[in-house]
Every structure is written in C-alpha cells, then in structure tokens.
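Action item from last meeting closed. Structure (272 res):
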C-alpha cells in the first residue's frame, strides 16, 4: 500500500514538472533562439565598413557585452539560483562546471572569440575548427536560454540580451575568420547561420529533457553564470585591456557600465 502511494506521489511530481513548462515558455524561448541565430547574418553589414571603423565598433561592443554578461550572471542568474535552489556546495560546483566546460570548448577545439580584425594568418583548418567550436558553444547557449525562461520570463529576457550583445562581436569575428579561411561570402554567411542555428536545437533539447528530468534547471542556471563569468573575464576583458588611450578607455568603461546598467534595469523592472 505504502509502495503504491509512493508511486502515485512520484507520478504527480512528474506530471507537475511536465506542466511547469508552459506554452508561453516554449514561445519565448524559440523566439529568443531564432533571433540569436539570425544575428549570424550581421557579418554581411561589416563588409562595407573600414577596418578602423569596424575595430572601433567591436571595441565598444565587446566592453558593453562584458558588462551585460557579468550583470546577468551576478544580478539575475546567481540570485535566482540561490532563491530557487539555495546556495550550497552543489550550486558552487555547477558554477565551476560552467567555467570548466567553456574553458574546455575553447582549449580543445581552438575556438576563440575572435574580436580582432582577422588576417591571412587564419588557415582553412582553423576556419573549420571555428565552426565546430561555434556549434557547441551555440548549442550550450540554447540550453542556457531555455533554462532561464523556465526559471522566469524576466531572467530569460536578461539572458537572451546578454547572449545577443556577446554574439554580435563574436559573429563578426567568425564571419571574418571564414572569409579569410577561404570561404566565399555567401558560403561563410550560410555556414555561420547553420552553426548559430544549433542554439535552437539546444533550447528544444533543454525543454524536452526538462519535462522528464528533475534538477536539470537547478544545474543549468548556475552553470550559465559560470560560463558567462568565464567568457567575460577570459575572452572579453583581455580585449579591453589592449586599449591604452585615455579617451577610448573612458568610453569603454562607460559602455561596460551601461552593459551592467541594462541588466540592473531589467532586475528592478521585475522586482516591483
């Protein structure tokens, strides 16, 4: 009898988890990841820009993205993880897992966030490796965005924006890498879109697994925070450090603060 009651309780829990992911969450998540996939076409707009204009644009975009990623990690993801799941050793391990996974993806697949204007030193095999690394990275982004929307629509929007701001300089860099790796413009755009579209697969995977696996979102939210902290501190901040002229530094710091500010605004808008 007791065993039968336990089974019913477990079934109720499973049904509750399955119904937790509302159609609204699916809709928001899919719109978010499709939008992010379309950003892969931004490379085409940089073709008419001079190298000087492009590197200036990238410099400020990178500092803004740094602020947005750190802002999302510390103002949305970690507080939400602590509030929903408590902040114990488990959460800390998930944050570390995020840092380690993004480190491994970059290290072993030679995938770098290429924010400098590319040159002929990027060989063709590197362009291929870049595509593989990019696909894995975007798939993880999809998982993270889906998990954020499941936690709350506001956290989902904040995470989507943080990814978008970070994707813009990344996609421009990737497009440049493919062009200099010997691909035609059309082929480079198509391949960039295909790799970006893996974010959609990541999001669908997270939502499908989430309906059957309890604890997946408990892992993914702090994991996302770790990944964002790693990208901001390992990839983006070193780029900002390369600038030494004071007027540019002031502008960079301003855009960095603006990135954090956008995340803070999103936080206060749903705090009330």
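Sequence:
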């Amino acid at each position: 009898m007791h065993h039968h009651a336990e089974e019913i309780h477990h079934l109720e829990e499973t049904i509750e988890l399955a119904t937790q992911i509302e159609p609204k969450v699916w809709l928001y998540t899919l719109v978010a990841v499709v939008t992010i996939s379309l950003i892969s076409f931004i490379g085409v707009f940089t073709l008419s820009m001079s190298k000087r204009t492009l590197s200036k644009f990238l410099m400020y975009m990178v500092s803004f993205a740094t602020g947005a990623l750190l802002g999302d990690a510390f103002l949305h993801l970690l507080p939400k993880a602590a509030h929903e799941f408590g902040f114990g050793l488990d959460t800390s391990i998930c944050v570390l897992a995020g840092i380690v996974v993004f480190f491994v993806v970059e290290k072993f697949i030679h995938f770098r966030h290429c924010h400098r204007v590319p040159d002929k030193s990027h060989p063709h095999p590197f362009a291929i490796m870049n595509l593989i690394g990019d696909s894995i990275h975007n798939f993880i982004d999809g998982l993270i965005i889906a998990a954020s929307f499941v936690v709350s629509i506001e956290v989902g929007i904040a995470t989507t924006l943080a990814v978008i701001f970070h994707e813009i300089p990344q996609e421009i860099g990737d497009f440049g890498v493919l062009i200099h790796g010997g691909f035609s413009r059309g082929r480079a755009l198509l391949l960039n879109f295909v790799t970006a579209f893996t974010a959609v697969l990541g999001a669908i995977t997270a939502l499908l697994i989430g309906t059957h696996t309890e604890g997946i979102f408990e892992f993914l939210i702090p994991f996302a925070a770790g990944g964002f902290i790693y990208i901001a501190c390992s990839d983006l901040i070193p780029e900002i450090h390369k600038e030494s002229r004071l007027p540019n530094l002031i502008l960079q710091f301003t855009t960095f603060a603006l990135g954090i500010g956008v995340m803070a605004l999103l936080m206060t808008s749903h705090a009330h």
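Note appended to the action item: Residues 51-85 form the longest helix (35 residues).
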